[in-house]
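Can't paste images in this forum, so I'm doing it all in text. The chain is below; anyone willing to post the predicted structure tokens underneath?
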Amino acid sequence: MSVGKSITSHTKILCVIGHPIEHSMSPTMWNPALQELELDYIYIAFDVHPDNLKEAINGIKSLGIKGVNVTIPHKKAVIKYIDEVDPIALKIGAINTIKNEDGILKARNTDAGGAKKSLLDKGCEFSGKNILILGSGGVSRSIAYTLAESANKIVLTDIIEERAIAVANEIRSSMKVDIEGKLSNKETIKDIINKVNILINATPIGMYPKVDETPISKELLHNDLYVFDVIYNPLETRLMRDAAEIGCETLGGLDMLVNQGILAFEWWLNKKPNKDLMKNKIIEYLRLI
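Text version of the structure:
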């Protein structure tokens, strides 16, 4: 089924929930992939206010929605409404993918696998490396957990220091990794940055429409860094441009978005979608706006 064809009573629904949700690229990449495989599904976005999250989850069951992606700010809060949560996602403390199996809601975190695959595909070797992750939200937690198996040391920073420390303590309690949480400010970054090999921005700083913002000033960067920005709109953030100009290798968030989507697609539908199609549809859209 394609979006351009008739939607019938047989058409099944897949969706993403978040608040706000207007920025989501998921429908842009999902519907062409569903169309190419001639699957009678449609993928749409729902803006769900945090106050309405419980009712929305009950609605997923009632309406028979087959699969749900979960984005900010629901990745942690939604866990208590799920029937079965993957053990790794429980450790991470955040989920982004729900599967409805005959009214039983099961959840996983595909952000972690999507991020890891993206880094490896682009030649970023993180085994034995020192890593600085900006932010301590759901995406940051996912990435920290998946890299903790191989990293030498991880530092998480947040504008609320207690939050970064709490997340670091949680990860340390379940993984054998040297990890600490720190306050995110210029002094802290300046003290840490020259000791790390990989810098990951897991904050929304630099996201459209505030494309001139950056979480780290250019003069603090050094050319031995591998810089990964999880933001995908714009395709190249100011942080990435600054890093490239001084000789850093960089990676944007588009590959992570597509890779985590593919993991969800395969889990829900037992089909492998066309990665290039999904990626190119997002690139086409972003170049139009």
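The chain has two domains: 12-108+255-288, 112-252. The mean pLDDT is 94.
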